[in-house]
Design the sequence.
């Protein structure tokens, strides 16, 4: 498929294109192109039909707790968007310095290793930038200092969509507890998107220094049990597997990785009739 063909495959609210595919401006297309244009349900009534997400944010910020979270998360989705022209910035609040079994592991060495693994994975996915906030792994707090760091990054990068984990998920399938760092990172991301990033009086020294308030149009939550959007990742799920392979210090059974990741994607894809899909809970903020 040509670049122009890829561009028209997704609707975008962060950019629009003319017939040649050139970016013209950054209007709010979402009002003309609702996220679920084919839905005929009454507002407020649950719709049992899963819907494919066809919009594409032009500028995407993914905020996670640890190296590898983003790659187990929406890597195939953002890879597809970036193939079609989006720009992505990955923010890891910690460097995963507690992610080993041996208590004598040097946390600084481990952090260096995991940052290198994440940068290699991010290059495969296609992110323009990766930022590590160097917060302590296992002790992440949704505090003012973290939110100030995130607000600064949001105002600098000015994303159309912020992707993070669903902080309301605590238990999964009666056999999994959502990591405290995941909940803290996700809640900090939410609180930074709204209200802080758009409020000039939140961390006022930022606005005084020239970082104008920014309104994020979409919050997109992954690892959620309440998805409302399925993304066709048939073309990019292989990149997700390749990105995950870069996290060598973390993948316990590398021989089973591909089968596992493709299995999850196939299962979600079946719900919307495509070979592979990832799911998101999309919150519209514009
Ligand atoms: Zn994690």
Sequence:
């Amino acid at each position: 498929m040509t670049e122009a063909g890829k561009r028209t495959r997704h609707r975008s609210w962060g950019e629009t294109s003319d017939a040649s595919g050139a970016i013209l401006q950054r209007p709010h297309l979402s009002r003309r192109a609702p996220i679920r244009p084919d839905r005929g349900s009454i507002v407020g009534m649950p719709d049992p039909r899963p819907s494919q997400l066809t919009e594409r944010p032009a500028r995407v910020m993914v905020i996670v707790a640890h190296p590898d979270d983003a790659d187990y998360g929406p890597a195939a989705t953002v890879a597809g968007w970036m193939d079609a022209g989006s720009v992505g910035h990955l923010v890891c609040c910690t460097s995963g310095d507690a992610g080993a079994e041996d208590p004598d592991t040097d946390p600084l060495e481990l952090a260096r290793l995991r940052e290198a693994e994440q940068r290699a994975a991010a290059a495969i996915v296609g992110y323009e930038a990766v930022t590590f906030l160097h917060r302590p792994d296992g002790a992440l707090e949704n505090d003012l200092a973290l939110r100030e760091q995130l607000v600064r990054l949001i105002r600098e990068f000015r994303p159309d969509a912020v992707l993070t984990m669903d902080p309301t998920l605590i238990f999964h399938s009666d056999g999994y507890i959502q990591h405290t760092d995941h909940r803290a990172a996700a809640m900090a991301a939410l609180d930074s998107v709204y209200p802080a990033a758009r409020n000039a009086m939140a961390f006022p020294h930022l606005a005084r220094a020239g970082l104008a308030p920014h309104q994020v149009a979409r919050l997109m939550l992954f690892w959620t049990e309440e998805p409302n959007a399925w993304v066709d990742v048939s073309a990019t799920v292989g990149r997700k597997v390749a990105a995950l392979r870069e996290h060598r210090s973390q993948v316990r059974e590398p021989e089973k990785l591909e089968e596992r990741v493709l299995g999850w994607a196939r299962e979600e894809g079946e719900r919307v009739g495509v070979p592979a899909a990832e799911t998101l809970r999309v919150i519209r903020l514009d």
